[in-house]
Specification:
The complex is a heterodimer of chains A (about 160) and B (about 725). With about 160 residues, chain A is α+β, with helices and mostly antiparallel strands. Chain A is built from 5 helices and 5 strands. Helices cover about 35% and strands about 15% of the residues of chain A. The longest helix of chain A is centred in the C-terminal third of the chain and has 17 residues. With about 725 residues, chain B is of the alpha+beta class. Classes of the chains: A alpha+beta (about 160), B alpha+beta (about 725). At the A-B interface, α1, α2, α3, α4 and α5 of A face α5, α7 and α18 of B.
């Protein structure tokens, strides 16, 4: 099996894996970064979202072979001490219920707001409708995205 | 929940499933170290001033890890910052205390016990301080985790009093606080797990890691109830990382497990595995045919549910009659975290880490399977990535236990999304028929309902003897929503025809209410339109004079229902027309329900439907609730939004079909759930109340279905009686 050096959360991680092993399982089972969640395995629920060179991607759809030369960020590396405006806004709006989907929601939101700090409801819907929250926290998510956008612009 | 329903569950659930309903007695936990103060099973006060609360319910998003400490901290007069949470696990310490999370019962079931636990500890801490100061306990007060001698302002922290308090006598009836002095109860509190969740540190079952643990995934039968006839392990064993292939006989959906170094190898191995299946008796099961059979059974003799007046005689002579049949399909729970369990069997001991709503059943099942004493099985309840009733079943626990025993290693068995959607327990389908009669003035007089339900395989089918008792279903208060029908009809008859779905079925958020409330509140709307009445006014008339309806042990206070209906209507501007939208038809619908005689809820939905594509959009749902004393209003609003979203998924999308003995849908692509682009604005209004708290985890689910169906009718003139409501059905 080939060796890889995965750049994740600012650090190189050496590992051996089948080239087709999805990044999701590399993170969870080889690197013990379990904040990135398994939900559907086919890229439609968003629970496994991470950043690839700053853009939101579904880690269940990225093979480890395709990670070479790219930088990845997971929820564990989004900010020191949960200080990202999105994370703070999520707490302020008391978004989470079971919380299982929220890492994915946060990673997509953080990427969206870095690209488009003035994102409105249409952009929020376009990005976050790629995600599933079975508890139904959507209203608070939307409020939190707006709050994070405001706080991000102020910062 | 009323006593009867509890007894029903207790006596009919899988034997000994831990549904012991006890008013938890305070008692000294003598096994604890002497420097700590453990006046009862729930709390421990440590000399370092930390207060440990053992959380006796599973956190699945409903907020028990916030609500339970609020109740304790308030009554104990602790400071919020000193409370630490531990998850209770089945053990002698919690013998007789319910550890099961179901029936929207976490608040209802712990409120009295936790307040008493807190009051007991507070009384003993005050007594210890008074003894030390040689003063009267009545001259001392408790405040923010300390006892203060009021005349002199001397102060001792709870931690410093822990040792002495443990030697005080346990008071029989410690005084409870006056609700007007509540410090935390009734005030919004943010979720305690929030910071761990947003930073990825929160650990669910799937995230739990045990030294030496392997990962496993099973190949499961495509037929419900199918069994392995034979299999060839070789194609799986050649997958890199795969270690072993083990047939599994326990659990619900038997199959073959592939054990590997990591989940991906196990998944690949399971896919590669060649298995010959014995399809079993359900290989031809087809849910469309089953629904037709249900409908064809509507005139079969039914069991008695309710009877007032003489509906059978009154109906034919009613000047105006109407009749409708409603269909509610099979549903999956589809929590985002799929079923999973870690088991570590070592000799005659077993340790389990599992996201479960019922750890005691997990312990019992593991002990039975291994033939070892229950106390040799340790069950750790992790956070749950959603429960919704699915995790009341522990079928995924014995599978993991059997596998760990077979391989002699700790192993995590994970269900794939497809497993989770196809191989679990389903909300059974229902058919409901209602015949109504109105008098010449358009006033409803007759309600004649026949419900066809499948029993839930968890609760158990009624025995022949049960079925011979004409009051059986009345005594057991089922079907929920038909039995506790809150409206006045001079002639009301409600029957139940049992037709048991052959696939595994189980409680799904709000259980029988979604189907029943959909039919009942839709039909009231139909009656209102037939009579040319406003649907709100018709309901208010049928609830007059707002008296209490006694049904068996249930007391349905119709004044409370009138209040929430009026409040929801007022906040939604019910009497004002909706603003029009170009190219779309707009409409409003109203519905209400009483959950378990303890929560009163009304909702108004605003929808629009595209005139050409028939695309349905729910814009806003206004919700008014009276569920007694609210512990955490922020949590309650969250549960309202959650319940309504859940109900909307069933209204607009949810449906599981069975073809050729298997569930057709297997991922969020074909079993679709509401997403943010479809999420309406929710407004929740709470009626202040100091009545006993009612459970709210399920309450908001049912009414949103008919509220939307009625709004779609108001917008389009088209009545959809078979869920889900789709553009295709509106075009037809």
């Amino acid at each position: 099996m080939p060796n890889y050096v995965l750049q994740v959360n600012g650090r190189p991680q050496r590992l051996t894996a089948d080239p087709d092993m999805p990044l999701l399982w590399v993170l969870r089972d080889l690197l013990q970064l379990t904040g990135t969640k398994y939900g559907c395995g086919i890229g439609i629920c968003g629970a496994c979202t991470v950043h690839e060179n700053g853009l939101a991607v579904r880690s269940c759809q990225v093979s480890v072979a395709a990670t070479v030369g790219k930088n990845y960020t997971t929820i564990e590396g989004l900010s020191p001490g949960g200080s990202d405006p999105c994370q703070r806004a999520w707490l302020e709006e008391d978004v989470s219920q079971c919380g299982y989907c929220q890492a994915g929601m946060l990673m997509t939101t953080a990427a969206l707001l870095r690209q488009n700090p003035g994102a409105g409801d249409a952009e929020i819907d376009a990005e976050l409708s790629q995600h599933v929250c079975r508890c139904g926290t959507y209203q608070r998510i939307r409020q939190a995205v707006h709050r994070a956008a405001r706080d991000g612009r102020k910062a | 929940m009323t006593t009867t329903r509890r007894i029903f569950l207790k006596t009919s659930v899988l034997a000994g499933a831990g549904l012991v309903i006890a008013v938890d007695p305070p008692r000294l936990a003598a096994e604890e170290a002497s420097d700590d103060f453990s006046p009862n099973a729930y709390i421990q006060i440590r000399p370092d001033n930390r207060i440990i609360l053992w959380v006796t319910r599973s956190e699945m998003g409903q907020g028990v890890r916030t609500t339970l400490p609020m109740m304790l901290a308030d009554e104990l007069e602790a400071d919020w910052s000193q409370i630490r949470l531990e998850q209770a696990l089945p053990s002698p310490r919690f013998k007789g205390i319910r550890l099961r999370t179901s029936g929207s019962g976490s608040t209802v079931g712990t409120y009295g016990a936790l307040r008493k636990a807190g009051a007991t500890a507070r009384t003993m801490l005050i007594a210890a301080a008074a003894e030390q100061w040689h003063v009267e306990p009545s001259s001392c007060r408790a405040q923010s985790g300390a006892v203060i001698h009021s005349p002199t302002n001397r102060k001792l922290t709870y931690g410093s009093l822990a040792k002495a308090a443990a030697r005080q006598p346990v008071p029989e009836k410690p005084p409870l606080k006056d609700p007007k002095n509540f410090r935390y109860i009734g005030k919004p509190m943010k979720r305690t797990d929030g910071p761990a969740i947003v930073s990825g540190r929160a650990k669910y079952g799937i995230d739990t890691r045990v030294p030496g643990m392997l990962h496993a995934v099973m190949k499961r039968s495509p037929y419900v109830g199918g069994k392995v006839a034979s299999f060839d392990p070789k194609p799986a064993l050649v997958v890199a990382g795969v270690r072993q292939v083990v047939p599994i006989r326990s659990g619900l959906s038997t199959g073959v497990a592939v054990v590997a170094d990591h989940t991906w190898a196990a998944m690949k191995g399971a896919e590669a595995l060649k298995v010959q299946w014995d399809p079993g008796p359900l290989k031809d099961f087809d849910s469309d045919k089953f629904l037709l059979e249900m409908e064809a059974s509507l005139d079969k003799p039914g069991f008695f549910v309710r009877g007032d007046g003489d509906a059978v005689t009154a109906l034919p002579s009613a000047p105006q009659k109407l009749e409708a049949i409603y269909e509610y399909p099979f549903q999956a729970h589809a929590p985002l975290e799929t079923m999973n369990c870690i088991a570590d069997v070592q000799g005659d001991r077993c340790e389990i880490w599992v996201p479960t709503q019922t750890p005691l059943t997990a312990q019992e099942e593991a002990s039975k399977l291994l033939g070892i004493p229950q106390e040799n099985v340790t069950v750790h309840t992790t956070l749950l990535g959603g429960g919704f009733g699915r995790r009341l079943f522990v079928d995924y626990v014995p599978e993991a236990v059997e596998l760990s025993k077979a391989i002699g290693r700790p192993v995590q068995l994970l269900w794939t999304r497809s497993d989770d959607m196809r191989c679990g327990f389903f909300q059974p389908c229902s058919i409901l028929r209602i015949k109504g009669g109105l008098n010449a003035n358009g006033s409803p007089q007759v309600w004649y309902q026949t419900s066809i339900h499948s029993e839930l395989s968890m609760i158990g089918f009624p025995t022949e003897k049960d079925l011979q008792d004409p009051m059986h279903f009345f005594k057991n208060e089922v079907p929920w929503g038909a039995f506790d029908h809150p409206y006045n009809f001079p002639h009301l008859k409600s029957d139940l025809v049992m037709m048991n779905a052959p696939v595994p079925t189980g409680p799904w958020r709000a259980v029988m209410y979604p189907a029943q409330v959909f039919a009942r509140e839709s039909f009231l709307d139909e009656m209102a339109h037939a009579a040319g009445r406003d649907p709100l006014d018709l309901r208010l008339d049928l609830l007059k004079p707002g008296d209490v309806k006694e049904l068996g042990e249930q007391r349905i206070d119709r004044a409370r229902l009138i209040k929430v209906l009026s409040l929801a209507a007022e906040k939604a501007n019910w009497r004002q027309p909706l603003a029009s939208i170009q190219g779309r038809s707009v409409g409003r619908g109203i519905a209400c329900n009483v959950y378990s005689a303890e929560c009163y809820i009304a909702q108004v939905a605003e929808v629009s439907v595209d005139d050409t594509t028939k695309d349905i959009r729910v814009h806003r749902v206004v919700c008014a609730v009276d569920c007694g004393q609210v512990i955490n209003p922020a949590g309650l609003e969250g549960q309202a939004e959650s319940g309504m979203t859940w109900g909307l998924s069933a209204t607009l999308h949810g449906r599981i079909d069975f073809k050729n003995g298997g569930a057709v849908q297997e991922n969020y692509i074909d079993f679709t759930v509401l997403r943010i682009n479809e999420a309406p604005v929710f407004e929740t209004h709470i009626v202040p109340s100091q009545e006993m708290p009612g459970g709210f985890g399920e309450t908001a689910v049912p009414p949103v279905i008919p509220a939307v169906a009625n709004a779609v009718f108001a917008a389009t003139g088209k009545r959809i009686r078979r869920l889900p409501i789709t553009p295709e059905k509106l075009k037809a």
